[in-house]
Write a structure and sequence with these properties.
The protein is mainly α. It has 22 helices and no strands. The C terminus is likely disordered.
Amino acid sequence: MSRYLPWQSFNEFFVSIVYFVQGSAGIVGIASSLILREELGLDFYQMGLIGVAATLPWSIKPVFGLLTDLVPIGKFRRRPYLHLGPLMGFLGFIGIALQGYSFQSFFLFMIFANLGLSLTDVATDGFVVEESNDENVTRLQGITQASIRTASFITSFFSGLLIFAEILTPHQMYFIAAAFPLITFFASFFIKEKPVDKLQVFQADPEDSISTESTLAQYQTKNFDLSLFSKGYIISLMVIFTLIILKLAFGQQLDAYLAENLPFISGSYITVILWGSFMAWMVSYYRKLVIMGMASKMIFLAILFILLWRINPGTGSSMFFYVKDTLLINEKTLGFMNTIAQLGSIAGVFLAVKYFDKINLRKLLTFTVLLAALFSLSSFAITRPEYAEWIGSNWAISTLGTIIATPIYFLDNLFTVIISGGEWINPWATASLLNPIEHFLYTQSIIDEMIFMVAYIPLLKLAVLVCPEKAEATNYAIIASIMNIGLSLSGWLSGFFYNYLMGIYHPTLEVSAIEVDVIEILIWINIITSLMCLIVVPFLKTEEFKRG
């Protein structure tokens, strides 16, 4: 029976739970946008800062990785952190539901929630990477991504439906989001982990769970010179990180104060100093890991590739509200399109694991980056509705869009009948009556996510293959944190460029206005910057790259 199950132990099952909870964040995707723009009245730059709050805590994953690798609590390396992290996520989301009625409160509660979720993720990554090898690395990454996408499929279905049907308000959606980390919290008490003692060397027991199926060197923590990581050194990061959070949350107030009282000091200078200090700390941290033998020098090139791949500012929230307010696509349909996109992600995971894994990794990375950039051109059919209508009116796209949308409207009708006792409506008829733009958007969303996942799985494989033994969680956390630093910068730059371009092309309008020409410029910026990572590919060297 085990050959038909994706997991062979409760610990592997727990990993799928953790990633399922991560994917559940889609339940508040639409709620968040509505709260920020329509209730709080934020512009796209401020909305981008909220996006930074959702990703920035994940950038300090290397410190969490160090803790979970080398600093056991009560003789356990993972379990205590897997109790604490989910509780932080729960409290952060509850805070947004109850008190998230200003930019600052929403921002700070989002930071707190994601600190907990990132801590949970790092401890779980230790399990995943310890178990990974050349034969099963793609399968395990496939399990994690399939768990995320399955949760995203389920939660995105309700993300717009519950709001559109006025069953819950946008703020109340965060109560549902808060319930998911509790699943991880309760499940964490059942995972199996062998106690460790820094004064004792343990032999790996093949009968144990994946958390203890590792080499002898992984338990010889006394061999690491932890004096390199002094209390002052760790505290310095916490201070820098806290100052960055405060600058992001209260930047406008600080800039106004400086302009009035200290005009010779610019808020931009403070921003550069803080982020420069953060990057300098990360570089010094990496050097210490290399000195300790806990990091591979090849990680530097992998980090550069990943950073360039992720720093690609896009349209951000401006495209969402363009589709909603200009194309008049309602919240329920937008949620359904996200649901359909998750089906594309699941299909992408299957294709990546079943077929694309046989291709040389370097060639695969190049191919998928180019393919993703090429398909990004389809976004111009959204900004120019006449193109979308022409494409969506095509018999093949219309039929495909109807086929794609029918299962979603079947679930929608089923939900309506069960909850409100409404009349059953033929879902095929509902899907076939969608307008051409909706048919195009459904088709575009599923293909876009499928291509993204086909590109993302090889990226995760690269991350795992360059991790040396002894400190898997730490190394994987370094790479994952770089992904999130890139994502944070992309979200921030998307809002910054939108405001900047509005000031150039539409100086008489509010920066929060939606202008399609600015959105199109951002699409080009996204395509061009996404291709920059290709300059690193020829220099990547691993055994996997040498084959084929």
